[in-house]
Every structure is written in structure tokens, then in C-alpha cells.
Design goal:
Blueprint lengths: L11 E7 L13 E2 L1 H10 L4 E6 L4 H10 L3 H10 L1 E6 L6 E13 L2 E14 L13 H6 L8 E5 L5 E6 L4 H12 L8 H7 L6
Parallel strand pairs: 2-4, 3-4
Antiparallel strand pairs: 1-5, 3-7, 5-6, 7-8
Helix pairs in contact: 3-5
Length: 203
Amino acid sequence: MLKQISIKFLIVIIASTFLSAFRSDPNSPVHWMTFEEAVAKAKKEPRPIMIDIYTSWCGPCKLMTKNTFGDKQVADYLNKNFYCVKFDAECFDTVKLDVIVKDTIREKGVIKEIKDKQQTIKFVNAAPKGTPKSAHQFAYSILDGQLSYPSIVFLSANASRLNIIKGYHPTNLFEPIIKYYGTGNYQTKTYDEFSKTFKPEFK
């Protein structure tokens, strides 16, 4: 069962920088992009964002890439309804997020003003470069410290986290999940309510 979770990680993102943490696969039917590109596109043409958090040694991650993301029907649906991001949870690149936070100005202990303030958050892999199986701070943060691979993170068009789906999901199990978020039904129904009337279309 899918479970909605509250936003803890992302505030209001206005810019971001993903360096080579983005591993593009030219042979993949899914149009993977950087998080920066996904956020920018979502501002112009709102769509939910899907992030595949993976590692190079993870067997289920490879199965997910080959069998599920490699499925043309899945890929076509994702390309049409989502902005898709791939992130290596053990890379050594720097991730920067520019966010808007509330800045409280006090005078003699009394709140004088509350205004928006831009703040840059930097995420790195703090382990010495080359350390095997060292988790990147971005992966640790967005997964609330519950590192499990693959983890598929769904965000709304304004980059608020909606849910985390863990583990390998073959096409038949993944179809209702992506259609729940891709159709916007997550805004008005629980996943259980959605699944009761869901009719699979992928073959």
C-alpha cells in the first residue's frame, strides 16, 4: 500500500545544480534529465517529478532500469507525464539547492518582521573520494535516512515530496503507481481508493 508522507526535505526550490551525479543513458527510452532541468521545466509546464535513487552495485536497481524503465509503455507514459531524474546515491558530486526560507527579524525579543530569504543548501558525499558504499547527503536527506535501493521519489510540480516507493517494481506493479501520480489523482484520492477502480492498460 502506498502511504502519503509529509514534506520534510524540500521547501520551495528556485534553482539547483546537479553535476555529474546525473548519469544519462543514451540507450534508455526514458528521457532522463538533471534535477535542475526537471525543476525548471516543471515551472514552465507543471508536471510531477520522479527521481530514481540508485547505486551501481544494486541488482534490483539494474532490473528496474532494464525491465521497468526499459519497457516502452512505461517509458512513453513517464516521458509524457513526468520529468524524470536519475541520481546515483553514492556519487561524489556536489548538489546545491537554492531555497526560500522564512527569516524572522526580532527587536528586543519581539517579532518585527517575517520575510522570505534565499538560502543555498549544499549536499556532498562526506566520505573520502572512492570510499565504497558511502551515501551522498542528498540521498540520505531526501530518503529521511532510510537508505534503500532502488527508491523512487515522487515530487509534485512545485517540488514538494509526495511519496517514496522502495524496491523493484515490475511493469504490472509500477503502472498503477505512476498513473496515480501522473493523472493527479493523488490530490483527491488515497492510493487504495484509486486502485479499486484502476484498470491496467500496459501489456
